[in-house]
Amino acid sequence: MSTLVSVKNLSKVFDVSKPWLNRVIERLPKAHLTATSDVDFDVEENAVYSLVGESGSGKSTIGKMVVGLLQPTEGNVEINGVDLASETDIEIIKQSRTDIQMIFQDPYASMNPRWRVRDIILEPVVASNGDTEGLAEKLLEQVGLAAEDATKFPHEFSGGQRQRICIARALASAPKLIVCDEPTSALDVSVQAQVLNLMDDLKSELGLTYLFISHDLTVVRHISDRIGVLYLGRLVEEGTPDQLFDAPKHPYTQMLISSAPKIDGFGREVDPPQGEIPDPIDPPSGCAFHPRCPIATAKCKSERPALRELDDNRVACHLA
Ligand SMILES: Nc1ncnc2c1ncn2[C@@H]1O[C@H](COP(=O)(O)OP(=O)(O)OP(=O)(O)O)[C@@H](O)[C@H]1O
């Protein structure tokens, strides 16, 4: 298998200064938020790589840099050996744009409610002057809807059906890679499974590669070939689902696994992850997880652990 996506030392820093405050108070230092830092991973062709972490861990920021919606502050993303941020050949850029698509958590928000489904699905193909004859109908059938649905409007569908329409739109340009940002987290549990099964079938049929983003390790367990666990913008552990679930090496991965959503008889979540996520504008010293870590030592407070190979995993923990 060859590598389709290669993410190297990827960092994104946002300027979160308040311009009005900087005008009032002269020489006030600018405020910076490090959303992702030094992230490194490869995604093999026709594989599923999942990025997992709590809210604010930088998952979406990485997804947006991979599809080219955000520019990295440092590092780069290569798709099939092409770094879009520095590539100058317009034909290669155009081809790479159609090779990568993204689907989002809220399908309704990502489609124009006044457009018919056919126009929504064909938008990326029309934009690149591609052949649209019978394409929307074929794609609708491929995602388990009916060809006749092409003339309907988004409000005539359920949440799960709308996500199928978004998947059809993503497939319209025959992409190689789809970045899936929490594509099932707004759906009912039974519908989640149907959409995940559909995505799995399409992957085998069309040879697709997915970069899958989720806050829930259990959702990605069965669909992933590799999982990267993010904490405050950094990869803290990476391995196969079996390695992570059977022998998690980082205390944060252990916490995520032991606090995987369990619902009690009253529909309440039991055992949510313990402790507060630190402020990314002023992250903790040393290992960013140390304030929540049950086994942290003095070294963890002062020295940031590097991501290192351990057995077949990669882990960033002094104590692993
Ligand atoms: N455009 C932006 N400007 C400033 N800060 C941003 C911007 N986009 C994201 N951030 C911040 O970067 C950090 C990472 O955000 P990101 O959305 O990538 O996390 P996430 O893991 O995808 O979270 P969620 O699951 O809530 O979407 C957060 O602290 C967020 O507030």
Automatic annotation (TrEMBL):
<keyword id="KW-0067">ATP-binding</keyword>
<dbReference type="InterPro" id="IPR027417">
    <property type="entry name" value="P-loop_NTPase"/>
</dbReference>
<dbReference type="InterPro" id="IPR013563">
    <property type="entry name" value="Oligopep_ABC_C"/>
</dbReference>
<comment type="similarity">
    <text>Belongs to the ABC transporter superfamily.</text>
</comment>
<dbReference type="GO" id="GO:0016887">
    <property type="term" value="F:ATP hydrolysis activity"/>
</dbReference>
<dbReference type="GO" id="GO:0005524">
    <property type="term" value="F:ATP binding"/>
</dbReference>
<dbReference type="GO" id="GO:0015833">
    <property type="term" value="P:peptide transport"/>
</dbReference>
<dbReference type="InterPro" id="IPR003439">
    <property type="entry name" value="ABC_transporter-like_ATP-bd"/>
</dbReference>
<keyword id="KW-0547">Nucleotide-binding</keyword>
<protein>
    <submittedName>
        <fullName>ABC transporter ATP-binding protein</fullName>
    </submittedName>
</protein>
<dbReference type="Pfam" id="PF00005">
    <property type="entry name" value="ABC_tran"/>
</dbReference>
<dbReference type="Pfam" id="PF08352">
    <property type="entry name" value="oligo_HPY"/>
</dbReference>
<dbReference type="InterPro" id="IPR003593">
    <property type="entry name" value="AAA+_ATPase"/>
</dbReference>
<keyword id="KW-0813">Transport</keyword>
<dbReference type="GO" id="GO:0055085">
    <property type="term" value="P:transmembrane transport"/>
</dbReference>
<dbReference type="InterPro" id="IPR050319">
    <property type="entry name" value="ABC_transp_ATP-bind"/>
</dbReference>
<feature type="domain" description="ABC transporter">
    <location>
        <begin position="5"/>
        <end position="257"/>
    </location>
</feature>
<dbReference type="GO" id="GO:0005886">
    <property type="term" value="C:plasma membrane"/>
</dbReference>
<dbReference type="InterPro" id="IPR017871">
    <property type="entry name" value="ABC_transporter-like_CS"/>
</dbReference>
